[in-house]
Specification:
Blueprint: H1 2-19, H2 28-35, E1 40-41, E2 47-48, H3 51-57, E3 60-63, E4 67-81, E5 86-90, E6 95-99, E7 110-111, E8 116-122, H4 126-155, H5 162-186, E9 189-192, E10 197-202, E11 209-210, E12 215-220, E13 225-231, E14 243-245, E15 251-257, E16 266-272, E17 285-302, E18 307-308, E19 314-319, E20 324-329, E21 331-334, E22 339-343, E23 350-354, H6 356-360
Antiparallel strand pairs: 1-2, 2-20, 3-23, 4-13, 4-17, 5-12, 6-8, 6-11, 7-10, 8-9, 10-12, 13-16, 14-15, 14-17, 15-16, 17-22, 18-19, 19-20, 21-22
Helix pairs in contact: 4-5
Length: about 375
């Protein structure tokens, strides 16, 4: 009885396998892929991804078409201020920081050109201070005596030579100027904003002792940042055109390059196009993809299409059929901040542009 039941179960299992796909013969390997309801890698290296999983992963493709475009180079760069739309506020002499009329500005504060940001009270020793006070007292005493002498000479006008009256007047004026200059030297010095913009960095607190040339504030115009990149081939600066920042849609216009090396490289400047520079921060480290005059042939695809295969080669996934994907090794060259140029794929192939990383992880 048990033997009969076992034979019946085996027969039913064989019949179910034979008619599971309407009697179609798909071959051994495809049958394994189609019978599964989850993504898996097939023995031939292709990947089976059901339609439901493709929708969840938002898998998108594009038809590869060969094109001839400008060759690009990737440059290390950082954000710098526009020298005509910003500046630094430094201490001109050692002293103590005091708040300005509106207090000390903080990060992000809007300032206008000529605004008093803070004061520097000169740092002097006790002996120097005593010497200045004694000199000022001496000047005040001499000034009073000279003014009195001038008044007496003017009262004797007509009996005293005119040159004596003029000499007394000149001496009074000189003493007054010396007294004013001495008082100004002991007074606090205002720190003025060199440009209109916002405070990008602030390193000043009330009562802080600073040295000459210490940078206390940096002022920038967020809408007028610039990008400084480094080029190690002097001939490349003549062929640079517009550029873009890697990972963004920001377009940069080439301004110019230096004619002298700095730390073994030539600095070149780019300016973001209008209404995009406010997304950058002063000193931010970025990568720039710059177009050159050289031309290159290939298929432009988004950078998200590029993955690494099992041999650690750069590759893309090609959509062979409705639920099958195949990995193809390619050569890659940068095109702009969001696209790359690939070669090694047949024209007209459907290249995965979104979801390639997820497909590449299927084992």
């Amino acid at each position: 009885m048990k033997l009969n039941r076992l034979i019946a179960c085996l027969c039913l299992a064989w019949i179910g396998a034979a008619y599971a796909h309407g009697g179609e013969d798909h071959g051994d390997a495809p049958a394994v892929a189609i019978a599964a309801d989850k993504p898996q890698r097939l023995p031939d290296g292709r990947v089976f991804v059901p339609k439901e999983a493709q929708r969840r992963w938002q898998v998108l493709t594009v038809i590869g078409q060969p094109q001839t475009l400008s060759r690009s180079v990737t440059l290390n760069a950082h954000v710098v201020m526009d020298p005509n739309a910003g500046g630094r506020v430094q201490a001109a002499l050692p002293g103590r920081v005091e708040p300005g009329p509106n207090g000390l500005p903080v990060l992000g504060s809007a300032v206008r050109k000529g605004q008093i940001l803070a004061y520097i009270v000169p740092a002097v020793g006790s002996l120097e201070r005593a010497s200045q006070q004694a000199e000022r007292a001496d000047l005040q005493a001499r000034l009073k005596l000279t003014e009195a002498q001038q008044a007496r000479l003017e009262s004797l006008n007509g009996t005293v030579a005119r040159k004596e009256i003029e000499a007394a007047a000149n001496e009074v004026q000189a003493l007054r100027q010396r007294s004013t200059a001495l008082a100004a030297g002991a007074a606090r010095e205002p720190l003025l904003a060199p440009a209109t913009g916002m405070i990008a960095s602030a390193d000043a607190v009330s009562g802080q002792m600073v040295e000459a040339k210490d940078v206390l504030f940096e002022i920038v115009d967020p809408a007028r940042m610039m990008i400084e990149a480094l080029v190690y081939d002097p001939g490349m600066t003549r062929g640079l055109q517009q550029a873009s920042i890697v990972g963004t849609d920001m377009t940069l216009d080439f301004v110019g390059g230096a004619g002298a090396l700095r730390d073994g490289a030539l600095p070149v400047l780019f300016r973001p196009r209008r209404n995009t520079a406010d997304r950058l921060a002063l000193g931010q480290i970025i990568k720039v993809v710059a177009n050159t005059e050289d031309k290159v042939q290939g298929m432009p695809v988004p950078a998200t299409s590029i993955v690494r295969n099992a041999s650690n080669e750069t590759a893309v996934w090609v959509h062979d059929s409705a639920e099958l994907f195949r990995s193809v090794a390619v050569q890659v060259s940068p095109l702009d901040g969001q696209r790359v140029m690939v070669s090694g794929v047949k024209p007209g192939a459907r290249i995965v542009t979104s979801g390639a990383v997820l497909i590449n992880q299927i084992r």
